[in-house]
From TrEMBL:
<feature type="transmembrane region" description="Helical">
    <location>
        <begin position="356"/>
        <end position="379"/>
    </location>
</feature>
<dbReference type="GO" id="GO:0015293">
    <property type="term" value="F:symporter activity"/>
</dbReference>
<keyword id="KW-0769">Symport</keyword>
<keyword id="KW-1003">Cell membrane</keyword>
<dbReference type="Pfam" id="PF00375">
    <property type="entry name" value="SDF"/>
</dbReference>
<feature type="transmembrane region" description="Helical">
    <location>
        <begin position="193"/>
        <end position="214"/>
    </location>
</feature>
<dbReference type="InterPro" id="IPR036458">
    <property type="entry name" value="Na:dicarbo_symporter_sf"/>
</dbReference>
<feature type="transmembrane region" description="Helical">
    <location>
        <begin position="154"/>
        <end position="172"/>
    </location>
</feature>
<feature type="transmembrane region" description="Helical">
    <location>
        <begin position="319"/>
        <end position="344"/>
    </location>
</feature>
<protein>
    <submittedName>
        <fullName>Glutamate-aspartate carrier protein</fullName>
    </submittedName>
</protein>
<dbReference type="GO" id="GO:0006835">
    <property type="term" value="P:dicarboxylic acid transport"/>
</dbReference>
<dbReference type="InterPro" id="IPR001991">
    <property type="entry name" value="Na-dicarboxylate_symporter"/>
</dbReference>
<feature type="transmembrane region" description="Helical">
    <location>
        <begin position="7"/>
        <end position="27"/>
    </location>
</feature>
<keyword id="KW-0813">Transport</keyword>
<dbReference type="GO" id="GO:0005886">
    <property type="term" value="C:plasma membrane"/>
</dbReference>
<feature type="transmembrane region" description="Helical">
    <location>
        <begin position="47"/>
        <end position="71"/>
    </location>
</feature>
<feature type="transmembrane region" description="Helical">
    <location>
        <begin position="83"/>
        <end position="105"/>
    </location>
</feature>
Length: 416
């Protein structure tokens, strides 16, 4: 745990340094803010790309090994069913919390936001127009495994890996054992790389935070204070619900779990990427005592189907935009919107800024000006910090809970 604490402290220091350096550049050298931001952001880019480099092979190998080792198709079906029940329940609860709190707090009625140039939303508007059931199916089912690997399409890799793993499980040990052993070795080799890559995290955090503060300054916190305050309050309520459910299932072991994932949570918060901590989460959950087969099966699925923070943000942001434009929506319309978001948001985790794309598509559907997304684009980075952190917590609890329900949660490996 000493190494983990050192890294955690290094990330905190990097976070504070990033805010300080970004603030100095914004105040003292405003003319250099844009080039400075562009250059220092490269530190974050390096870290994110290093992590992205290992996500596809790690998801593929761990999932294939996990399913092939199960060898019992009934167990695969049972674990998958429990996982999907958790994902659907958690998604509905997250959407409802966002819906209830945005109606109660009404940030759009009390916040006077400057009207942004809608050109900043052009890219999102264009990408949202192509969203359809056909695109969803294409996004889920791979045309080529190699294309899915090249573009880091996690859901497509998951679909292929599940089918391949099930096929290996039914092939018999004589044929499957050498393949499973090879993939197992590769997975462990990649996990070893995780330890090296994580030491780039403080630099990534420093670069990401300094770039945002240098460009926007501290004023951005004042302008959007009410919106951010209300959104993070809603996130706090969601955390409370998730942790209460977690405590009900895991008991006092929940506190040990939170201690183990404090570093991934902070990295997700700082870099706005829940993907960045996927390899580290696999490692920590296995050390916590979760069955490796369950971890390698549930966690990749969770990254596509169990994004609690993003789900809550979708209802919150959509109704907020309606409030800004003075559009009153009936309870029936809002419930319908919730169900639409529930369906359309599944499986688009690989799309850049996926939450915003779905919000734009949903606003268009309900007569809310989709250009309103430009109003929240300047602070989306800060909202994304909270969303990413919450997504990590939700997936951690889902994996631990399913392990417990399967009777596969053992004592922590580093305490045995």
């Amino acid at each position: 745990m000493k190494g983990q604490n050192k890294l955690f402290i290094a990330i905190i220091i990097a976070l504070l340094l990033g805010v300080g350096i970004g603030g100095i550049v914004h105040v003292q050298y405003p003319e250099s803010a844009e080039p400075f931001s562009k250059n220092i952001k490269l530190l974050g880019t390096v870290f994110i790309r290093l992590v992205q480099m290992i996500i596809a092979p790690l998801v593929f190998t761990t999932l294939v090994v996990g399913i092939a080792k199960m060898s019992d198709i009934k167990m695969i079906g049972r674990v998958g069913t429990k996982a999907m029940l958790w994902f659907i329940s958690a998604s509905l609860i997250s959407l409802f919390i966002g819906l209830i709190l945005v109606n109660w707090l009404e940030p759009g009625h009390v916040t006077k936001l400057p009207i942004q140039d809608v050109a900043s939303a052009d890219e999102l508007l264009k990408s949202s127009k192509s969203f359809s059931l056909e695109d969803f199916v294409k996004h889920m089912i791979p045309k080529s495994l190699f294309e899915a690997f090249a573009t880091n399409e996690v859901l497509q890799i998951v679909v292929f890996a599940i089918m391949f793993g099930v096929a290996l499980a039914n092939l018999g040990e004589e044929y499957s054992k050498p393949v499973v052993k090879l993939f197992d070795i590769i997975a462990h080799g990649i996990l070893k790389m995780v330890g090296y890559i994580m030491w780039f995290a403080p630099l990534g955090v420093l670069g990401a935070i300094a770039a945002v503060v240098a460009t926007n300054g501290f004023e951005i916190f004042k302008v959007y204070a009410i919106y951010l305050r209300d959104f993070f309050f809603a996130l706090g309520v969601l955390w409370l619900v998730l942790l209460l459910v977690g405590y009900f299932i895991l008991g006092n072991r929940l506190f040990d779990l939170l201690k183990r994932i404090k570093e991934p949570l902070l990295i997700a918060f700082s870099t706005t990427s829940s993907e960045a901590v996927f390899p580290k989460l696999v490692e920590e959950l296995e050390k916590f005592g979760c069955n490796s087969r369950v971890v390698s099966f549930i966690l990749p699925l969770g990254y596509s189907f169990n994004l609690d923070g993003s789900m809550m943000y979708m209802t919150f942001a959509s109704i907020f935009i309606a409030q800004i434009y003075g559009i009153e929506m009936t309870i029936g319309q809002q419930i319908t919107m919730l169900l639409v978001l529930m369906l359309t948001s599944k499986g688009i985790a690989g799309v850049p800024r996926a939450s915003l794309v779905i919000i734009v598509a949903t606003c268009s559907m309900f007569g809310i000006p989709p250009e309103g997304i430009a109003l929240i684009l300047p602070i989306d980075h800060f909202c994304d910090m909270g969303r990413s952190m919450t997504n990590v917590l939700g997936n951690t609890l889902a994996t631990s809970a399913v392990s417990k329900w399967e009777g596969q949660l053992t004592e922590p490996l580093d305490k045995i």
